Amino acid sequence: MPEISRDEVAHLADLARIDLDDAELDRLAPQLQVILESVASIQGLAGDDVPPTSHPFPITNVFREDKVEPCLTPEEALAGAPAVEQQRFVVPRILGDEQ
Amino acid sequence: MTDLTRKTAAELADLLAAGEITSVQLTQAHLDRIAAVDGGDRGVHAFLHVDADGALAAARESDERRAAGQPRHPLDGVPVAVKDVLTTRGLPTTCGSRILAGWLPPYDATVVAKLKAAGLPILGKTNMDEFAMGSSTEHSAYGPTRNPWDLDRIPGGSGGGSAAAVAAFEAPLAIGTDTGGSIRQPGAVTGTVGVKPTYGSVSRYGLVALANSLDQAGPVTRTVLDAALLHELIGGHDPKDSTSVTDPVTGLADAARQGASGDLTGLKVGVVAELAGEGWQDGVMTRFREAVDLLVKLGAEVVEVSCPTFVHAMAAYYLILPAEASSNLAKFDAMRYGLRVSPEGVAAPSAEEVMKATRDAGFGDEVKRRIILGTYALSSGYYDAYYGQAQKIRTLIIRDFQKAYESADVLISPTAPTTAFRLGEKLDDPLAMYLNDLATIPANLAGVPGISVPAGLAEEDGLPVGLQILAPALADDRLYRVGAAAEAVLTERWGGPLLSKAPTLEATL
Fold first, then answer.
1. Whole-model pTM?
2. Rounded to whole angstroms, how far apart are CA atoms B144 and B36?
């Protein structure tokens, strides 16, 4: 039976950029364990002879003509931004003190 | 004057065409109904945002076109509600999440653009489980929607808002989206009609993605014909969606009208053996067996089909969906739009710290569970055992469908294993919640279309039961033929539409 520990949930949350506190880890970890036990039932069911399906129908990528088409103005694209300066998105610092 | 909110969209289109009513009257009648029953502690709460000004302005323009003899579409002037997962330019779009509170999209989804181009006033945006993750609409960050049949019960999910809006006569038409049953299951538990079209036949452009390979927008209505009319309007190829199919979406309303004659001679109906048994409510199965008998009386030949891999569909779905969702929701990073929260007690936090604090504050428990599960399933070391295996199960489910359609034109089952449960009943048990979509998930994995039509009320609780009809890919017309036939005969048997038996909601404010 697969196991997902509280530490592993904390690690996965870190990878997924979600800051879970202790109470959330206590609540979510056992729930995830139950879900994982349920979905693990498909392990080993289909052999190497079964190809995987990523998409309901076989499709190939679609390209369009390489020409300019109408798109959002800078003002429209920035309208929902938390912070804007000089027609750009303002983001918090991306480097640490030591970098 | 008769109550316009009780009429079908097709009837309203006729009244508008005959000049007996105006779109302004019609739109105002629905806004009045929303004002009466949607708000307050005991309101239906189908809507997250009502756009009275915008809807009335669109209605006035529609009336001007009618007056000039230039309606754009038979449904020009008939109002519609839109699930809050489709972008609407300048109108709030939250996906039921705190992380998008107050977001005003700068563009319209293709489905929304088509509604506007045809002249349908948009009444507002309907409530949903956060990012369409759920079967009860209780995972909405803005509070649950209530089932008009019993205000203490769930309206299904994730599209409980759209289903409740049409069931409570707050809108004649609504748009839903269906990733694992989010149109059909709410349809079943609210006594309404819901259709998941063939994957790719309705554009996903502007549909905030939950799981790209499963998501599909479709009609939510009170009658099969109304669903067909709306389906034809929103369907069709869209160059902005790379998974859009090029086949035209036509002949659906004709199929519904033909089906309503009640003759199903020559049709082969397959009953899926795996979608019954333990966990299926007695009252649901009773109504389902009656529906099967009814189809036989109408001339259909019923055969039992086996789809052995369907029992693994839920497990495969809850690996594929979280995997795709964890990737899709990575874009909510507090940088370009949506919520931005700084961690407490950190001077000059980094972008990564802001991202983590924002996603913790902005996402609810179900979204966090699925993102973490998806991250797990895609991790190296687990990928083959989980995600890879789920993709193979998907292949086997598609083969099950192919084999079943060799001996049947359509497949049928109950839409959901139970009737509407009580609010709060399954909120702390994710797995119990997931089981609601047992019968609807296989269609999404295979991309085939499905409809839920009312099958009657369960004896033990007096709540609606849904009949699900599934057809092969691009044979959506069969849903309408069979659905309309069942609807016509059942409505006659009941002495009127099933919804006429629902409680008349009193003003809640």
1. 0.97
2. 18
